[in-house]
Design a protein that fits this description.
124 residues; mainly alpha; 4 helices; extended
């Protein structure tokens, strides 16, 4: 079983800090290595995925939506429906108990006289 240099470097990079007795120098080195090595790789990965998805987004969603075709909007809704949570004050859990218990509404109507400047600015 051969191990590439990259996998060894990544293994060393991700080695827990506690293995090295929590030295401050190692923690700083670990943070710097993480910033220098892993974050640009992740950014490149995200960017490459976006570059692959943008043409498909434009073709399947953006263009139909701009042309007034509802298929683009319906596709976005069908993608987002499973991952979006919508809760109302009437939502209940599986046992029928309310998810959110709100205090009763306290509505108070307070009338006040407006100054002349306020009446003028509101054109009353």
């Amino acid at each position: 079983m051969s191990t590439s240099v990259d996998s060894i470097a990544i293994t060393k990079l991700l080695t827990p800090i506690s293995v090295f007795n929590g030295s401050d120098a190692y923690e700083k080195m670990f943070e710097e290595n993480l910033k220098v090595s892993v974050l640009p790789l992740l950014a490149a990965l995200v960017l490459s995925i976006l570059l692959l998805l943008i043409p498909r987004w434009n073709k399947l969603i953006q263009k139909p939506f701009e042309e007034g075709d509802e298929r683009g909007l319906k596709l976005v809704q069908s993608i987002l429906r499973p991952i979006m949570l919508r809760r109302t004050k009437f939502s209940t859990d599986q046992e029928g108990r309310p998810i959110l218990i709100l205090p009763p509404a306290d509505v108070q109507v307070i009338y006040c006289e407006l100054t002349e400047a306020e009446k003028i600015s509101m054109k009353l």
